[in-house]
C-alpha cells in the first residue's frame, strides 16, 4: 500500500522543483561568462631521420609521437583552433640547402576535424633534416590573426641542423613582433646541447621546456599545454622573486614566469583588497634530470611573518612538473580600509646528480587571481564552478522538503487506513 504512494511523492518533488525554477531571477543567464576569442595552437613535430630511434618505452620516437598526437586530438577542447606543422618530413637527401627548407603545414590552424588530422599524422615517417628555425618562423605565420591566445608546441629529439641562424634568436625575433605568442618546447631523450637550445627558445617567449622520456609523459604534457591555451587569456610576464618579502616584487592579477635554483625560496607580494579572495597557483618544472623525492611549497604569510595559508605537493621523479595552490579570502570591511599585503613564498626541494647543471634555475609559473570574496556563495565561483550552483542547492533543499511532506502524508494515510 505504501509503494502505491511513491508516484505521488515523486510528483510532489517534481512540482516543487518546477516551482523553484519558476522563481529564478530572469537575469541568471546574463551572469554566464561572455564568449572569448578562440585560442590558437600549433603543434610543430620533428620528423627527421633521428626519430627512428627506438628508445621510448621500447618503441620508436616517431611511434610514440603519433600515439600521443592521437590522444591529444581526441581531448582537444572544442573551441581551440589547432594546427600541425612538420619539420624534416619530406626531403631524404643530403643537400643542406634543400633539407633546411623542409617544413610543411600538415593540418591548417582552425576548427579541428579529428579524423582528418589523425589521418594526416598517420602518414608521417622519419625522413630528413632538423630545420627548427625555419619551422618556428613558418608556424608563427600560421598563428597570426585573431584576438585569441597563441601557443606553439615544438616537439623534437635534437638541436637545429640548419645554422648559422640560431633558433633561439628566431624565438626572440618572434617575441619582438608583439603578437603574444608563447612557445613551449619538449625534448625527446635530449642531450645537453638540445636541452640548452630548447630551454632558450622557450624562455625567449615565456614558455616552458620539458624533457620527455616516456610516451605517456609526452601525451600528458601536450594535453596540458593545449588545454592551457584555453585557460589563459594573458601572456606570461617575466618577473624575479626576492630573497625576502620586504624586497619582493608586487604582482597584480595575471600569469608570471620566473626561474628558481634547486632548494631555493623566492618571495612575491600581492595586495588583497577587502572583499576579495586571492587565488594563487605555482608550477615548478623539472626540465632536467633530478633526484626522486622532491616537493614544491606555496605559502601566504602576513608582512609580520604569520602564516595564513599554505599548500605543498611532492613528486616521485616520474612527473615533469609539480603544482601547488592556495586561496585566501579577505573579508569585506568599511570603505577606506586599505588592502592587505600578502607575502607569497615559493619554495622547492629539488636536488640533482652531480653531473647535472643547476643553472639556469628551474622554470616557475605563478598564477595570481583576485575574485570577489565568497561571503555570499551565490556571487562567487568556487573552483571554477559558477553561480548556477546555488540552483542545485535550492533544488536539493526542495527535494528534501518534498520527501518529508510525502513521508508525512504516507504515514497519515497508513494510520488512518486510507489508500490512493
TrEMBL record:
Entry keyword set: Membrane, Signal, Transmembrane, Transmembrane helix
Gene3D superfamilies: von Willebrand factor, type A domain
Signal peptide: 1-30
Record-linked InterPro entries: CLCR, VWF_A, vWFA_dom_sf
Occurrences of domain VWFA (ranges): 40-225
Domain of life (superkingdom): Bacteria
Parts of the chain that traverse the membrane: 388-410
Name assigned to this protein: VWA domain-containing protein
Organism of this sequence: Actinacidiphila acidipaludis
Top-level taxonomy: Bacteria, Bacillati, Actinomycetota, Actinomycetes, Kitasatosporales
Amino acid at each position: 500500500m505504501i509503494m502505491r504512494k511513491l508516484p505521488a511523492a515523486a510528483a510532489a518533488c517534481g512540482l516543487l522543483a518546477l516551482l523553484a525554477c519558476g522563481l529564478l531571477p530572469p537575469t541568471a543567464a546574463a551572469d554566464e561568462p561572455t564568449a572569448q576569442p578562440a585560442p590558437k595552437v600549433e603543434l610543430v613535430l620533428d620528423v627527421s631521420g633521428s626519430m627512428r630511434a627506438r628508445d621510448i618505452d621500447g618503441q620508436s620516437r616517431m611511434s610514440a609521437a603519433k600515439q600521443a598526437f592521437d590522444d591529444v586530438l581526441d581531448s582537444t577542447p572544442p573551441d581551440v583552433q589547432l594546427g600541425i606543422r612538420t619539420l624534416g618530413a619530406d626531403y631524404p637527401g643530403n643537400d643542406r640547402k634543400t633539407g633546411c627548407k623542409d617544413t610543411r603545414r600538415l593540418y591548417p590552424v582552425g576548427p579541428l576535424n579529428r579524423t582528418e588530422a589523425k589521418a594526416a599524422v598517420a602518414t608521417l615517417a622519419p625522413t630528413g633534416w632538423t630545420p627548427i628555425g625555419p619551422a618556428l618562423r613558418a608556424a608563427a605565420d600560421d598563428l597570426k590573426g585573431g584576438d585569441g591566445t597563441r601557443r606553439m608546441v615544438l616537439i623534437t629529439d635534437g638541436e637545429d641542423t640548419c645554422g648559422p641562424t640560431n633558433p633561439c634568436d628566431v624565438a626572440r625575433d618572434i617575441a619582438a613582433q608583439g603578437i603574444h605568442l608563447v612557445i613551449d618546447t619538449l625534448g625527446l631523450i635530449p642531450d645537453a646541447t638540445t636541452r640548452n637550445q630548447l630551454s632558450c627558445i622557450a624562455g625567449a617567449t615565456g614558455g616552458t621546456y620539458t624533457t620527455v622520456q616516456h610516451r605517456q609523459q609526452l601525451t600528458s604534457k601536450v594535453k596540458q599545454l593545449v588545454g592551457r591555451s584555453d585557460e589563459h587569456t594573458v601572456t606570461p610576464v617575466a618577473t624575479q622573486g626576492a630573497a625576502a618579502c620586504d624586497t619582493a616584487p608586487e604582482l597584480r592579477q595575471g600569469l608570471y614566469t620566473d626561474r628558481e635554483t634547486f632548494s631555493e625560496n623566492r618571495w612575491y607580494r600581492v595586495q588583497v583588497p577587502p572583499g576579495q579572495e586571492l587565488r594563487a597557483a605555482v608550477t615548478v618544472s623539472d626540465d632536467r634530470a633530478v633526484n626522486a623525492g622532491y616537493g614544491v611549497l606555496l605559502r601566504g604569510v602576513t608582512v609580520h611573518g604569520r602564516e595564513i595559508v599554505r599548500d605543498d605537493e611532492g613528486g616521485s621523479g616520474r612527473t615533469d612538473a609539480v603544482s601547488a595552490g592556495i586561496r585566501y579570502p579577505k573579508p569585506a570591511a568599511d570603505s577606506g580600509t586599505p588592502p592587505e599585503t600578502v607575502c607569497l613564498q615559493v619554495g622547492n626541494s629539488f636536488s640533482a646528480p652531480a653531473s647535472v647543471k643547476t643553472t639556469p634555475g628551474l622554470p616557475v609559473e605563478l598564477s595570481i587571481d583576485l575574485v570577489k570574496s565568497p561571503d555570499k556563495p551565490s556571487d562567487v565561483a568556487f573552483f571554477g564552478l559558477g553561480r548556477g550552483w546555488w540552483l542545485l542547492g535550492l533544488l536539493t533543499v526542495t527535494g528534501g522538503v518534498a520527501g518529508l511532506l510525502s513521508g508525512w502524508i504516507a504515514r497519515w494515510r497508513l494510520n488512518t487506513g486510507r489508500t490512493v
